[in-house]
Amino acid sequence: MEYQDLNRRSRGVQLLSNGTLVIKAALPELGGQYMCEASNGVGAGVSAVVTLGVHLPPDLELKSSQTMVRRGSPQTLECQALGDMPITITWQRDSSQPAFHLNSR
User: Fold this and answer.
1) Measuring CA to CA, which residue among 26, 40, 27, 37 is closest to residue 3?
2) DSSP β-bridge partners for residue 37
3) Which of 40, 25, 26, 33 is nearest to 84 (CA)?
4) 3-state secondary structure labels for all residues of 22-63
5) pTM above 0.90?
6) Which of 14, 23, 66, 97 is the most exposed place for a label (fewest CB within 10 A)?
7) Which tens digits make up the pLDDT trace of 38-82?
8) What is the Cα–Cα distance from 36 to 43, expressed in whole angstroms?
């Protein structure tokens, strides 16, 4: 694997004088493997690899927040969730409305 050098001006990260790498805002594009190397001219240098994974909370994509349908016609309500799996989608109905309404004739 090939690594890019990070310096004090690298976007989204800050390198402190003690060697600590600070990620200012963990974004998905900053996820991946980071290698830390240390050397002091005595013997061989050493390195370690740290893998950073960035978790994404669920986000909903709704085509429309309001829809109308002709009485008796089928209707599909779509709710697409994006984010880290597993994601559970639960539908609920406004409880102030009756679940079924029957017309007396």
Assistant:
1) 37
2) 47
3) 26
4) EECCCCHHHCEEEEEEECCCCCCCEEEEEEECCCCCCEEECC
5) no
6) 66
7) 999 999 999 999 999 999 999 988 777 788 899 999 998 888 888
8) 17
